[in-house]
Specification:
Helix content is 57%, strand content 6%. By secondary structure, it is mostly helical. A hairpin with a 6-residue loop joins strand 2 and strand 3.
Length: 432
C-alpha cells in the first residue's frame, strides 16, 4: 500500500466548454473516471479518506487556502482543464511552479483542439472524448489504464524525473519554510456535502434553509451555477414584492446580466421579473422577463426551460394591449419560435438523467401546445421532486389560461371581421 498522496484540480458540476454550447459533467468525469483509479491505486488524500477534489475537503475556512496547500503538499496532482476553469488553470500553474514532477494533465479532445496551450504543448497530456468516456465502457477502461500507467510512472520516478516546464529550465528550487503534516484533517463539512444538502432542501421546497446552505458555499468559493441556485431560493422563499425587487437589485449589482451566458441565471432573473409583473402589472417587467428568457434560450443547455417560457410569455401580450393586430403578431411569433425549438431539440446536447428527462419532456409538451394547440399530451407525469412537480404544474396552468385567452380574443376578432364583411356585401361568398 502506497503512502503517496494525490489531489485533483478541476471544476465541479456541469460546465460549458468555452466557445461552444457543449456542456461537460465534471462530476461524472471525476466520480466515474478519475476517482475510481485513484482509489484502486490506493492513493491517499492529505485531508481525509477519498477527499481528492477540492469540494470534498472538509472545511470551515475559505477554500483557496486548502487548494494551495493541497497543490503544494500532494505528491501527485491530476489537473483536468477541459472547461478551462480559471481556478484549475491557476492551480496548474501554481503546481508547475511549486513542484518539479508528478503533475498529470487531463483534457477533453475538443477543448485542446480549439484551445491549444503553447506553454504546455510539449508536456504529455491524457486526452479523452467526453461522450465515449461515459458511454463506452471499453473506451473508459482503456483511458483509465493509461491514467494508471502515468500514475505508476510518477510513483516510481526518482528526483531526476521532471514534468514541470518551470523546473525543466533549472531556474530555482523550492525550499519550504514550514512542514505541514500530511494526513491532517480539516474541520467542518465539505463544499460537496453543503451543495448536496442545499439541493435536497431546494427540491423539497424548503427554500429558506436551502438559501442558507448555498450562502455558506458562496462564502467559501464563488461559482456562478451555485450563485444562480442561491438566487432561486432567495426569491422563492418570499414572493413579496419587496423581496423580489431586493433580490433583483442584488443580482444586478453582482452580475452583468447583459453579457451573461449562464442560462440558469438568466432564466431565474426572468422568473423574478415575471413575478414582479404579476403583482404590479407594469409592462416593463414583463418585457424584461421576455428578454432574459430569450437570451437564455440562445444558450440552451438542452432542457428548453428558457425557450418554453419565452414562448409562454409572448402569449401574455393580451394583458398589455387590446390591439388585436399586436396580440396576433405575438401569438404567431410564439407559435413560430416554439416550432423552431421543437425542431432544434433533437440536436440538443443535454444531460440525460431521470430528473432532466422530466424537465425536457414536459417543456416539449408545452412547446407543442403553443405551436399546435395539442393538449392531449398533458397527461399525468412522474416528477422526481416536489419542486419539479410544483413548477411544471403551476406553469402549465398559467400557460393554458394565457393560450385560451389569446385564442378567444383572436377568434372574437375573426368573428367580428366576418360579420363586418357580410354586412358590407351580403352576397359575398365566405368559406370556412
Amino acid at each position: 500500500m502506497t503512502d503517496k498522496t494525490c489531489f485533483v484540480v478541476m471544476g465541479y458540476g456541469i460546465k460549458k466548454i468555452p466557445g461552444t454550447l457543449t456542456k461537460l459533467n465534471l462530476d461524472d468525469i471525476y466520480y466515474k473516471f478519475i476517482k475510481p483509479v485513484l482509489l484502486e491505486e490506493k492513493l491517499k488524500s492529505i485531508y481525509s479518506v477519498g477527499a481528492y477534489r477540492g469540494d470534498e475537503i472538509p472545511t470551515s475556512t475559505a477554500i483557496n487556502k486548502n487548494f494551495i496547500t493541497s497543490v503544494f503538499l500532494s505528491d501527485i496532482v491530476v489537473a483536468d482543464i477541459s472547461t478551462l476553469n480559471q481556478n484549475a488553470i491557476y492551480e496548474l500553474g501554481l503546481r508547475h511552479a511549486m513542484k518539479p514532477k508528478s503533475t498529470i494533465i487531463l483534457c477533453e479532445e475538443d477543448t485542446i483542439a480549439n484551445y491549444p496551450f503553447f506553454d504546455i504543448s510539449m508536456i504529455p497530456q491524457l486526452r479523452y472524448n467526453r461522450k465515449r468516456i461515459l458511454l463506452d465502457e471499453n473506451y473508459k477502461i482503456s483511458i483509465q489504464k493509461k491514467l494508471k500507467n502515468i500514475l505508476k510512472t510518477c510513483l516510481e520516478s526518482d528526483d531526476d524525473y521532471i514534468d514541470s516546464p518551470v523546473f525543466d529550465f533549472s531556474l530555482y528550487k523550492v525550499q519550504p519554510l514550514v512542514k505541514v503534516k500530511k494526513g491532517s484533517f480539516s474541520s467542518g463539512k465539505s463544499i460537496r456535502k453543503k451543495i448536496e444538502e442545499a439541493e435536497r432542501l431546494k427540491e423539497q421546497l424548503k427554500f429558506e434553509k436551502a438559501e442558507e446552505k448555498y450562502s455558506e458555499v458562496l462564502n467559501l468559493t464563488f461559482d456562478l451555477d451555485i450563485f444562480a441556485q442561491y438566487i432561486l431560493c432567495r426569491y422563492k422563499k418570499d414572493l413579496s414584492l419587496q423581496n423580489l425587487l431586493a433580490t433583483l437589485s442584488f443580482v444586478k449589482n453582482k452580475i452583468d446580466l447583459e453579457t451573461s451566458t449562464n442560462e440558469d441565471l438568466l432564466g431565474i432573473v426572468a422568473a423574478i421579473n415575471k413575478q414582479i409583473f404579476n403583482q404590479t402589472k407594469q409592462s416593463n417587467f414583463l418585457e424584461q422577463a421576455r428578454e432574459y428568457y430569450r437570451a437564455g434560450s440562445n444558450f440552451e443547455n438542452g432542457n428548453l426551460y428558457c425557450a418554453r417560457n419565452y414562448c409562454a410569455l409572448l402569449l401574455k401580450q393580451y394583458l398589455l394591449t387590446n390591439d388585436i393586430e399586436t396580440i396576433k403578431e405575438y401569438y404567431y411569433a410564439a407559435v413560430h419560435i416554439a416550432k423552431i425549438h421543437i425542431n432544434k431539440s433533437t440536436l440538443n446536447k443535454r444531460v440525460k438523467t431521470m430528473f432532466d428527462d422530466v424537465w425536457y419532456n414536459e417543456n416539449i409538451k408545452d412547446l407543442a401546445f403553443i405551436a399546435f394547440g395539442i393538449k392531449d399530451s398533458f397527461i399525468e407525469f412522474d416528477p422526481v421532486t416536489k419542486r419539479q412537480e410544483e413548477t411544471i404544474t403551476s406553469g402549465r396552468r398559467e400557460l393554458i389560461e394565457d393560450y385560451y385567452e389569446t385564442i378567444k380574443k383572436l377568434k372574437w376578432f375573426d368573428y367580428v371581421s366576418l360579420q363586418h364583411i357580410i354586412r358590407k356585401n351580403p352576397h359575398a361568398m365566405v368559406y370556412n
